[in-house]
Design a protein that fits this description.
The structure is a homodimer of 197-residue chains. By secondary structure, chain A is of the alpha/beta class. Helix content of chain A is 57%, strand content 12%. Chain A is built from ten helices and five strands. In chain A, α2 (34-44) crosses α3 (48-56), α2 (34-44) crosses α5 (78-95) and α7 packs across α8. Chains A and B meet through β4, β5 and α10 of A and β4, β5 and α10 of B. β5 (174-177) of chain A pairs antiparallel with β5 (174-177) of chain B, so a sheet runs across the interface.
């Protein structure tokens, strides 16, 4: 037995996306991340940037934004519609063979699948900041704001759609602090575990 | 380099204590758990059962219990006193050589130690219940209540003394779901990681 679906949820700046790519390469799995956004865009006609914000991040930052969001006659908002298209695309992807999926709520959408393993990657503030400054070419204060805002949106969105707490160990098969464990060693551990489970 | 201190925090019924014992055996480290309670009892004169409740669990279940707790003239409650003795004993232990410490707030007390690695063990409700029923000879409903109460107390106590959320991936080097990963494989992963870090 081995796991053929690996979902990776991650804090911004933790290197989770890179880890996901490397795990996919190591195991010979397909890798999905931004591709999902492109497919949702194609299917719905919305701009990828808009979907990127809406699909993974909070559709409503709070109850007031929620109240004023436009809704169709069934009561479903546009964000719900995007989320449902994205969910279907993620389910389709898993029919195509072994894969690693980073973000996009894949941990929750695939939570009942016995062949799936769910990983959360976090990191120390300092290490994440350094990574964001380096990779996104930001000042330290810009990086700090971007990190805080992105994780806050991910957390709110996760809670809204799943009613589960983002980053809580109980919701994942394994969680790793990439600053303490090391990025390459995270790749090793996840790849090995996927083969053994 | 390798880690010479491993702290294990765990949900009740997750097998975290057993995992800690096995990791210690595997690595040839000392193992501490109930021993700490005995040492606090010896030093303070309080009964071990009392310390077990007070040291790891909530000193005050809520603000009302807190308000009525007896305090000395410095404002420190007895629970704070027990916690401080326990903290000192845990620090003493780590001077004696490589060790695995399960619970007792050791993750927080040793959080700044570069030679320490912090692990959280959680599990699925069903598997934890089965384990509690089997090991503690309880009915399923008794086990469910015991599990809920114990984890709630651990969570409240952790938040009270550390201001950090118990079971949040960010607060540990690694978190493992023992039901998904398997108890023996948790032992393997933790032991291997401790040697490599």
């Amino acid at each position: 037995m081995s796991k053929t679906i690996i979902t990776i949820s991650r804090e911004f700046g933790s290197g989770g996306r890179y880890i996901g790519e490397q795990v996919a390469k190591r195991l010979g799995f397909s890798y999905y991340d931004k591709d999902i956004i492109a497919r949702v865009a194609e299917e719905t006609g919305f701009a990828p940037e808009f979907i990127e914000e809406r699909g993974e991040y909070a559709s409503r930052a709070g109850i007031f934004a929620y109240a004023f969001e436009s809704r169709d006659r069934t009561g479903a908002s546009m964000a719900d519609y995007l989320y449902s298209v994205q969910s279907r695309i993620i389910l389709d992807i898993t029919d195509k063979g072994p894969c690693v999926i980073v973000g996009r709520g894949s941990d929750y959408i695939l939570r009942e699948r016995p062949e799936a393993m769910h990983v959360f990657i976090c990191g120390d503030e300092k290490a994440k900041l350094e990574r964001i400054v380096r990779l996104y070419n930001k000042s330290e204060s810009e990086a700090a704001k971007l990190m805080k805002d992105t994780d806050k949106k991910r957390s709110i969105n996760h809670r809204y759609y799943t009613d589960l707490e983002w980053g809580k160990a109980q919701n994942y098969t394994m969680s790793l602090n990439s600053s303490a464990v090391g990025i390459e060693r995270c790749v090793d551990i996840i790849s090995e575990l996927a083969k053994k489970l």
